[in-house]
Design goal:
Helix content is about 25%, strand content about 30%. It has about 130 residues and is α+β, with helices and mostly antiparallel strands. Helix 1 packs parallel to helix 3. The chain starts with a strand and ends with a strand.
Length: about 130
């Protein structure tokens, strides 16, 4: 499997994402939306950063069980009920991402939503990865 990240000089410098990712491989892994659910199905974390940490950990756990690593992520979408809070905590969320997933950033988008499936959830991440 091979991922190539494209960040053209004609676009603004990416911070915490890649503008485009091309993937070649024999297997795609589609990752369901993950929120800050614990093993009992309860939302944990009082604020966006705590929930983001758990949601990203859950996404990476699903990926790992499918045979992938964070470097295999080609695309991640972040859904949040509070885009202003996400922007306010962007540096901290970036540190959490680098600690858990490294610096091989996928193509990403952050989308504001009215609410998520679990009313207490503040953030949800989904995506896909390309594997050998």
């Amino acid at each position: 499997m091979s991922l190539h990240r494209h960040n053209p000089a004609e676009l603004s410098p990416p911070t915490g994402f890649s503008h485009a990712v091309t993937a070649t491989g024999t297997r795609l892994v589609f990752l369901a939306g993950q929120t800050a659910l614990d093993t009992e199905g309860k939302v944990v974390g009082e604020d966006l950063t705590e929930q983001f940490t758990t949601a990203l950990g859950n996404l990476l756990t699903a990926l790992r069980h499918a045979g992938g690593t964070p470097a295999d992520l080609a695309r991640v979408t972040v859904y949040t009920t509070d885009v202003a809070a996400y922007r306010e905590h962007a540096h901290e969320l970036g540190r959490i991402w680098r600690r858990l997933a490294g610096r091989d950033y996928p193509a990403m988008a952050v989308i504001g939503v009215v609410r998520l499936w679990d009313e207490q959830a503040l953030v949800e991440l989904d995506g896909f990865a390309a594997l050998d």
